[in-house]
Design brief:
Blueprint lengths: L5 H4 L3 H4 L10 H16 L8 H30 L3 E5 L9 H8 L2 H10 L4 H7 L9 H15 L4 E6 L7 E5 L2 E5 L12 E12 L2 E6 L5 E6 L2 E13 L6 E11 L5 H5 L8 H7 L12 H30 L5 H4 E6 L6 H12 L4 H11 E4 L10 E3 H7 L1 H20 L5 H7 L2 E2 L5 E3 H7 L4 E3 L2 H9 L3 H6 L4 E3 L6 H7 L2 H11 L20 H26 L8 E6 L8 H17 L8 E6 L7 H18 L8 E6 L4 H7 L5 E4 L11 H7 L3 E4 L5 H8 L5 E2 L4 H9 L5 H5 L2 H12 L11 H9 L5 H20 L1 H13 L6 H13 L8
Parallel strand pairs: 1-2, 1-10, 2-9, 10-11, 11-15, 15-16, 17-18, 17-20, 18-19, 20-21, 21-22
Antiparallel strand pairs: 3-4, 5-8, 6-7, 8-9, 12-14, 13-14
Length: 833
């Protein structure tokens, strides 16, 4: 079922209903194309068409203009044979695609005019598209940016992930508490995707391994799984800038081999008859199911192996079709593991090469290492996945055998090189023996890769000093840095068209193709006319966001006040809690000293906490409790308001980011690998307040020390402070403002319905403050007063804002991908016909 040509995967032009080439597209052509699609694909006429019918017709008409380029790009890869890149990621936070596709095709205004002639509002249609809920945060959004940049740079690439039925949950705030509901993004289907039922792979689980002796006396191993699940491919075309190249995002959906046990059904057990189907389909049901239970852990492992195995089988099938043998795999294929989720790929590729294709172990290992590289995204030990050995032995017995052998040969090599220290041997082993035997997936990915990269200069440095210190000593050339980037097409051109037009008018059309051309606006940072236009665009964006805040939070905010924004996944190391404590301190100060010249501001929060992360969910509740008190206190006189926007996603980010004045990047130094929200916000003219963490360090270098607000401990100081202990009683005693804030929160001032609600949280901050919220509080509070002082100097603020935008060109994901291609993947742009 799976030996299909790539070109055959895309429909023919006759099937699409497309009758014009992109160069010939006009308003009339697009209008006619929409009507054809409305009639022949949606099955409606103009009189009976609903808004969603029109949306579908517009999507189909847009998709038609991508398909020909998709087929041309696919065919060129077979003709010219460039090295292919396979990007394996458990998350692809792609967001809405209509605006992205129209923007990259250069058809936005033409389509807007065509729909207007049909009596339809394009902007309204764009809001009908659900966000593809295929990611949690920065990891998934980075993967989406990278896919678009690979297409823009004409790198022959496939993204591989899971087609989650529900993806990440939909967040609802009920009385301030996060509630999780299914994000049913596929309820009405997905018009962007092409189902490929002929691309189907059987994925095994459980069973046993048999040792077989061949006629020459050699032993080979055959895995006999007890259970099989089918992986069905769904393809979404990813169009690059100006439509010059189109790549494929291939997502796998799980399906039972036998959807119904007919004998069980006929016996009257109707639920039991579909039990296997439910078990199989659970694999692609939900992103990040809770792993608090053994069943949840097993499901997560099943997800990771399912998509890794299907992707590797697909990559090998494509390679064999083109080159007829697997020994040249490393020469023609680069596989990038996005974090440890696909790390099982190391063992699975070895299994496929050795057991299925008959390659000798030593050669297979050389091929595997030469093909795979690994991106690390975290220094948090709990985020570096590890799996209990008994679980792996039960679920993936052959892969566990292979992991044992990889580890044994690895440790033999370490000893032969003269490293016999027991501590070092234990530290570099893939098997952690400390708290029940577990497989360290980060170690597996590291040892099985030819390159391992961090995602900012600081993060890569800390990788060598912390989590991979010992492995880095053994393999000193393996860790490299690739600082993350963002796609300006989405986060500037599409999200902020008003600013884009101003920048293009000032710096020239070159900004559309060369992000570094943004530097040309720097001389205008003090030009009164340009500053006025820049400020007017920002205010327009703030007016739009104020409407969203009123609609979703029922909080009325003034667009002329400072919009202080923290939007990201809720986690203790990201320190939303520090922001909340400063908000309470500011609230107290405003009431105590009403005669001072306070800068009016609105604190804007958005972000989800993992469903099982109870402490993070308590922080969300605290933010909403604080908001409730402050927003309803007349003595504040509008100087301070707080809004927590629910269900943060890509589309909401596209509204918040262009309207932001201040970007909160306040993680505990040394704990944020990179961040990409910091880049998006700075690109749109927000000033950063942050620690010297992740890519903040490099942003500071590019925008200038005077145009960013840095506070708090460095990563080295954090390590030293933790070395002295994390009891904060002395720190709190030295800070009257912090002491009053903690007393108020702990005593129930913000939770009169449950005075003890936050007592435990205050106790943790007092005695076990691992994330050093208290230690950095005074520095953060003082830095916020510097922010306020600069805000009052309007010329200085706008100069810094403009210079932030001017200095962000280096943070394009095109630059990042070019570095991957040149230094890790050893590939280059695909030749054009």
């Amino acid at each position: 079922m799976n030996n299909t040509s790539e070109a055959a995967c895309a429909p023919s032009l006759a099937d699409t209903g497309r009758d014009i080439a992109p160069a010939a597209d006009s308003v009339a052509n697009l209008r006619e194309a929409i009507l054809r699609r409305l009639t022949y694909s949606v099955g409606k006429n103009q009189a009976s068409a609903s808004e969603y019918d029109w949306y579908l017709a517009v999507v189909y008409a847009t998709r038609d203009r991508i398909v020909e380029g998709w087929m041309a790009s696919t065919n060129a890869a077979y003709v010219h044979g460039p090295k292919r890149v396979y990007y394996l990621s458990l998350e692809f936070l792609i967001g809405r695609l209509l605006g992205d596709a129209l923007n990259n095709l250069g058809l936005t205004e033409t389509m807007r005019a065509a729909t207007r002639e049909l009596g339809v509002d394009l902007e309204r249609l764009r809001t009908l598209e659900p966000d593809a809920a295929l990611g949690n945060g920065g990891l998934g959004r980075l993967a989406a940016c990278f896919m678009e940049s690979m297409a823009t740079l004409s790198i022959a690439a496939h993204g591989y992930g899971i087609r989650y039925d529900h993806g990440l949950f939909r967040q609802v705030l009920k009385d301030g508490w996060q509630q999780e509901y299914p994000e049913d993004w596929l309820a009405l289907g997905n018009p962007w995707e092409f189902k490929r039922p002929e691309v189907c792979y059987r994925i095994g689980f459980g069973g046993a391994v048999e040792a077989l002796t061949s006629p020459d006396g050699a032993t080979r191993y055959a895995w006999k799984p007890a259970e099989y699940v089918e992986a069905i491919a769904y393809d979404t075309p990813v169009v690059g800038w100006r439509g010059a190249h189109v790549n494929t995002l291939r997502l796998w959906s799980a399906r039972a081999c036998d959807p119904l046990q007919l004998d069980v059904f006929n016996a009257g057990d109707y639920v039991g008859a579909v039990a296997d189907k439910m078990r199989a389909e659970a694999i692609s049901k939900v992103l990040y199911p809770s792993d608090e239970t053994p069943a949840g852990q097993e499901l997560r492992l099943r997800q990771e192996y399912f998509f890794a195995s299907a992707s590797l089988q697909d990559a090998l099938r494509r390679h064999l079709k083109q080159y007829q043998e697997v020994r040249s795999l490393a020469e023609h294929v680069a596989i990038q593991l996005n974090d440890t989720h696909p790390a099982i790929s190391v063992a699975e590729l070895m299994r496929l090469l050795v057991d299925v294709h008959g390659i000798a172990w030593e050669e297979a290992w050389k091929i595997t290492q030469g093909t795979i590289s690994y991106t690390n995204h975290t220094l948090l030990p709990e985020a570096l996945e590890s799996w209990p050995v008994p679980l792996l032995e039960r679920m993936l017995p052959r892969q566990m055998q292979i992991i044992y052998l990889i580890n044994a040969l690895h440790l033999d090599s370490v000893r032969k090189s003269g490293h016999t220290d027991a501590r070092l041997i234990a530290a570099v082993s893939m098997i952690d023996e400390h708290a029940g035997r577990r497989v360290r997936m980060g170690h597996l990915a590291f040892i099985g890769s030819h390159k391992v990269n961090g995602v900012s200069a600081l993060h890569s440095k800390l990788l060598k000093q912390t989590v991979f210190r010992d492995l880095g000593t053994l393999y000193p050339d393996r860790i490299v840095n690739k600082t993350n980037g963002i796609t300006f097409r989405r986060w500037l051109f599409e999200a902020n068209p008003g600013l884009t037009r101003l920048l293009a008018d000032t710096a020239g059309e070159g900004i559309y193709d060369d992000p570094m051309a943004l530097r040309k606006i720097a001389p205008y940072a003090s030009d009164a006319a340009f500053v006025g236009e820049f400020a007017a665009v920002k205010r327009q964006n703030k007016v739009a966001l104020a409407k969203i805040i009123l609609d979703r939070c029922h909080v009325k905010v003034d667009p002329d006040v400072l919009f202080d924004v923290q939007i990201k996944r809720v986690h203790e190391y990201k320190r939303q809690l520090l922001n909340i404590l400063e908000t309470v301190a500011l609230y107290d100060a405003i009431r105590a000293q009403p005669y001072l010249d306070w800068v009016p501001r609105v604190k804007i929060f958005a972000g989800k906490a993992a469903a099982s992360y109870h402490h993070a969910k308590l922080i969300i509740k605290l933010a909403n409790d604080v908001a409730n008190v402050i927003n309803n206190d007349p003595t504040v006189r509008g100087m301070l308001k707080v809004a927590y926007l629910p269900n943060y996603n890509v589309s909401l980010a596209e509204s918040i980011i262009p309207a932001s004045d201040l970007s909160e990047q306040i993680s505990t130094a040394g704990m944020e690998a990179s961040g990409t929200g910091n880049m998006k916000l700075a690109l749109n003219g927000a000033l950063t307040i942050g620690t010297l963490d992740g890519a903040n360090v490099e942003i500071k270098q590019h925008v200038g020390d005077e145009n960013i607000f840095i506070f708090g401990m460095t990563a080295e100081q954090v390590a030293q402070r933790r070395g002295r202990g994390i009891d904060m009683r002395e720190t709190i005693a030295r800070s009257p403002a912090l002491r009053e804030v903690l007393d108020a929160i702990g005593s129930g001032v913000f939770s009169p319905d449950d005075p003890g609600r936050y007592a435990g949280l205050v106790d943790i901050l007092t005695h076990h403050d691992h994330f050093l919220v208290c230690e950095d509080f005074d520095a953060y509070y003082a830095c916020q007063r510097e922010v306020a002082a600069k805000w009052l100097d309007r010329a200085a603020w706008w100069k810094a804002s403009i210079l932030n935008t001017a200095g962000m060109g280096w943070f394009s994901s095109d630059r990042t991908i070019a570095e991957y291609a040149d230094e890790i993947w050893k590939t280059q742009a695909q030749k054009k016909e």
